[in-house]
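Title: Comparing notes on inverse folding

I've been comparing how different people in this forum approach sequence design from structure. To keep things fair, I'm posting one structure and asking everyone to reply with a full sequence. Here's the target:
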């Protein structure tokens, strides 16, 4: 063969001069010639002196090819030097490097294939020279047998592990579990570590212990049990049926029971169902979650399952049978006829949506799939149909679309408000400067008008920020019962005398965590909205209660989450709203009021504040039946905080410290610098982060006391700038300014504890007070 080692031809060695004529020698020769194992003799140089026919069969060489060759020819390359070194060491020291009996080695066939071998060696000294004889056994068959045995064991192990049936090994007679397969876990609910060493009785698996005892006695007497039915109890407490076959086995010298248990619960149930069902119900699944029915071509309902009965609001199947689908169930009878005309030739139909009427008159959306059945002549006789109520799903889909629309509008509104605040800041600041510059009374009226308009615009941007959930807030633990009580007198003045205000506040109400000012804004907006819906007077009811939202409520209200909440409800007996109006009420600038009567931002502000506080708001209304707004705020643990007193605004503080102003809007940066310099401060300015750092390094001798920086700027933001400057100037005070922020200063609009921030647009007095407060603060 091309890959086999090539053995150079050598002269055949001369036979030993010793005569082999004795009977013993002849007997040994016969044994060697007929032995199944190879017998090979070598000299001190590893030259093969003798090889029997078995060696030809094992190694593939003829005897003539082996005689005179080095025995390493029969070894893989990596063992040749090992052999030579071991032989030299033995000849020099007489020490064996390993046992010479039943030594496992690897040989090399003439074809290049490695052979697993077992070798036993002996040596013989004659005339001062040593020879070595090895009996070599080919283990290939044994290796194949071992491999086949391992494969068989693995196959049966895989079969046991993947079997859907429960396979167990238990001791006898105490029936303690030694092994269980995954099928047992799936069947009973118990993991293997929960059952090993325990009994069925100890695990409370047995429903009928007497039947189990009879099965054990039969196993003891006959040695096996075949397909005995019994009932068992799962870990969850469910009673199920099974069929077991078992046999006695001996494992490790001890008697054991090997059993295979097949779950027949579903089959038993099916048999029982078939026994109880009438013949014309056998094609229907009584427990299906979808409605299943058979209907004649003329619309008469022939059969229906309980799910369909519940879907349509009837009391029983008998109450529904014989009713007409076309005239009594379909909202539009013509729809059914169109479906018949379209699908009866196709025989099958799938996912067809129609509108049905429940018994109470409520219209539901239903998705139908089914097939047409013919009579013996092949004519269409009836339909078998699966019906799924998708009304709730369609409602949730509409809510999802509305939520996505509100989110998109919120992002747009927040972005507009942020840019608008920068412009308003410039307008307000310069109008204040003009107001303080000694203008004539006529011009002072103009600057006052400018300030008034800018402040009104700023209020609108704050509402947009509230809607987009990017308003800077300072939440605290609060009791909304207390807040309602504090604002109640004001509410009476707002709604007027022709509206009766009723409060129903639950005692021992849980606390919530939110900005108190925002809560007042929410309540006031809802009350004003209710007032405007009752032009002729009515009742306005404010309620609070602890509430728990469950999975059922959450499935029906997109955006809601399960858990404990505090509910605030504001209801009125006003004009109400239709479904179309309800779908738009939280959108910015949407209003049903006359032109000039409202901004359309009241309810959108409420929506944004509730979402920012982690809550959920839902409106309920019908025309002429009033409206109810329910808000669910997450409960919070803690003690309600006391509202702080308003600071004295008469005196505007001044200072002489050095302030670094970083703002990318040139007009606002210039205005801020002027306001600060007019109040005695030394001002360094920069249009961005890079310029600010260069300014600090350039003016290193100047002691900078305060960094006044915008939060969101191109490239690196204000927070990152502050971190870098604090490493250069330890103890530097930081004051952020922003129209809104959703970065590190405010996590989703919530002010980080200890961070100082002034909201744009700001007035001169607000800026100077905030700057003075930052400079005087302790680190």
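Reply #1:
Here's my take.
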């Amino acid at each position: 063969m091309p890959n086999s080692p090539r053995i150079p031809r050598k002269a055949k060695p001369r036979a030993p001069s010793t005569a082999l004529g004795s009977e013993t020698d002849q007997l040994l020769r016969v044994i060697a010639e007929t032995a199944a194992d190879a017998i090979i003799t070598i000299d001190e140089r590893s030259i093969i002196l003798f090889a029997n026919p078995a060696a030809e069969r094992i190694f593939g060489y003829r005897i003539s090819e082996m005689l005179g060759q080095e025995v390493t020819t029969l070894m893989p390359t990596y063992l040749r030097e090992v052999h030579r070194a071991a032989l030299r060491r033995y000849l020099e020291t007489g020490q064996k490097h390993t046992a010479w009996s039943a030594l496992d080695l690897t040989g090399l066939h003439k074809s290049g294939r490695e052979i697993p071998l077992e070798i036993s060696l002996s040596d013989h000294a004659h005339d001062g020279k040593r020879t070595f004889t090895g009996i070599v056994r080919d283990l290939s068959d044994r290796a194949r047998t071992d491999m086949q045995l391992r494969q068989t064991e693995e196959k049966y192990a895989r079969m046991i592990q993947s079997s859907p049936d429960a396979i167990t090994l238990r001791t006898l007679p105490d029936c303690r579990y030694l092994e269980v397969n995954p099928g047992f876990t799936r069947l009973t609910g118990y993991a293997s570590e929960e059952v090993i060493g325990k009994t069925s009785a100890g695990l409370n698996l047995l429903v009928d212990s007497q039947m189990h005892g009879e099965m054990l006695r039969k196993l003891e007497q006959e040695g096996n049990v075949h397909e005995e039915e019994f009932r068992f109890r799962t870990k969850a407490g469910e009673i199920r049926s099974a069929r077991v076959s078992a046999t006695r086995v001996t494992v490790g010298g001890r008697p054991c029971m090997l059993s295979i248990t097949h779950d027949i619960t579903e089959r038993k149930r099916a048999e029982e169902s078939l026994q109880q069902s009438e013949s014309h119900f056998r094609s229907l699944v009584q427990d299906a979650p979808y409605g299943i029915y058979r209907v004649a071509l003329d619309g008469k309902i022939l059969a229906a399952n309980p799910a369909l009965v519940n879907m349509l609001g009837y009391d029983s199947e008998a109450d529904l049978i014989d009713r007409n689908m076309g005239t009594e169930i379909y909202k539009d009878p013509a729809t059914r006829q169109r479906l018949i005309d379209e699908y009866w030739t196709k025989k099958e139909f799938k996912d067809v949506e129609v509108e049905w009427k429940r018994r109470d008159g409520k219209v539901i959306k239903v998705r139908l799939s089914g097939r047409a059945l013919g009579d013996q002549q092949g004519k269409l006789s009836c339909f078998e149909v699966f019906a799924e109520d998708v009304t709730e799903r369609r409602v949730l889909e509409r809510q999802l679309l509305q939520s996505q629309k509100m989110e998109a509008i919120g992002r747009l509104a927040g972005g507009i408000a942020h840019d608008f605040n920068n412009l308003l800041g410039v307008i307000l600041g310069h109008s204040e400067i003009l107001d303080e510059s000694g203008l004539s009374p006529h011009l002072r009226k103009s600057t006052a008008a400018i300030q008034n308009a800018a402040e009104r615009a700023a209020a609108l941007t704050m509402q947009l920020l509230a809607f987009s959930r990017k308003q800077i807030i300072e939440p605290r633990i609060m009791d909304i019962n207390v807040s309602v009580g504090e604002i109640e007198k004001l509410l009476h003045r707002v709604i007027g005398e022709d509206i009766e205000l009723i409060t129903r506040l639950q005692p021992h109400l849980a606390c919530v965590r939110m900005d108190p000012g925002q809560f007042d804004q929410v309540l006031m907006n809802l009350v004003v909205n209710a007032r405007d819906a009752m032009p002729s007077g009515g009742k306005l009811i404010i309620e609070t209660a602890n509430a728990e939202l469950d999975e059922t409520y959450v499935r029906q209200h997109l955006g809601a989450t399960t858990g404990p909440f505090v509910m605030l409800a504001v209801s009125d007996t006003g004009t109400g709203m239709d479904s179309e109006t309800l779908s738009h009420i939280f959108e910015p600038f949407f209003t049903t009021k006359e032109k000039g009567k409202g901004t359309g931002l009241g309810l959108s502000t409420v929506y944004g504040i509730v979402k920012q506080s982690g809550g959920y708001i839902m409106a309920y209304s019908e025309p002429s039946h009033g409206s109810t707004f329910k808000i669910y705020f997450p409960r919070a643990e803690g003690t309600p905080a006391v509202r702080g007193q308003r600071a004295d605004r008469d005196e505007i503080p001044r200072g002489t410290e050095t302030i670094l102003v970083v703002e990318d809007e040139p007009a606002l940066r210039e205005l801020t610098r002027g306001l600060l310099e007019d109040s005695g401060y030394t001002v360094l300015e920069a249009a961005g982060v890079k310029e600010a750092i260069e300014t600090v390094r350039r003016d290193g001798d100047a002691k900078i006391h305060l960094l006044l920086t915008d939060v969101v700027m191109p490239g690196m933001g204000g927070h990152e700038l502050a971190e870098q400057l604090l490493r250069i100037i330890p103890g530097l005070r930081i004051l952020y300014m922003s129209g809104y922020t959703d970065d590190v200063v405010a996590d989703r609009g919530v002010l980080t504890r200890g961070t100082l921030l002034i909201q744009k647009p700001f007035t001169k007095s607000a800026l100077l007070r905030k700057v003075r407060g930052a400079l005087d603060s302790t680190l």
